[in-house]
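Can you give me the bound-state structure? Components:
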Amino acid sequence: MEIIINPAGEHAAVVQLRGRLDLLVASEVKQRLAKAVQEGFRLLVIDMSDVSFVDSSGLGALIGGLKAARMAGGDLRLASVGAQAMAMLELTTLNRVLRPYPNVAEALQAG
Amino acid sequence: MDRIEHNYELSPVPEEGVAQLHAALVAFWANTDIAPDIQIRFTIALAEVVANILQHAVVPGDAPIKLRLRCTPTSLEARLVDKGRSWTMPTTGFTLPADHAERGRGLAIANAVLDTLQYRRFRDLNCWRLVLLHRAD
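Here's the bound-state model for the whole set.
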């Protein structure tokens, strides 16, 4: 999986993920998200538009990133979530805490 | 649509086994007319069970995991057989962990998606059977 993190303001970053977000990469994704929060990006927007598949380990990595962001007083938001990832969020009811937004811009601007 | 059945082998090496699973599913779906939302649900469940096997039952060097995929006019079925460590099905069923948990959702998701999720130990084999009904009739 490719993980690209771009600043989007003083305390915000857009994290673009490309490929499968699964058991093979979950640990690395979680670490990269935690590192971004440590560097001061307490609002993380995950651009899911190029994520082809998410499994429960991948969801766990996003939960880990959410916890790190919340601990820093921020948030983690999902943008451009595809049908498979949305099905995972709904099956686990994690869409209540990992809120999906239509696109990156709306996720960044949400209150 | 007639019955379609294909057999595959998945490596016990996670990087290889996961890639082989997704390649097998792409090939399998190409031969069926299953609706995309049903494909998604079945793929989710099967990937979680395979992930469970790769993480907890087999280790690199073990025999390949055998996968049989079957599509009938009313159901999708997967059978998985591996020679890894045995596993104990929880007697209390599968429950989702708390929202903040980072692990422990895989088989609960599979169980929620499927109409049947069975596990049994037969001699030195772990045998999984997954069934999703895709048509009401």
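A couple of observations. Residues 90 and 107 of chain B are 10 Å apart (CA to CA). The first strand of chain B starts at residue 4 and ends at 10.
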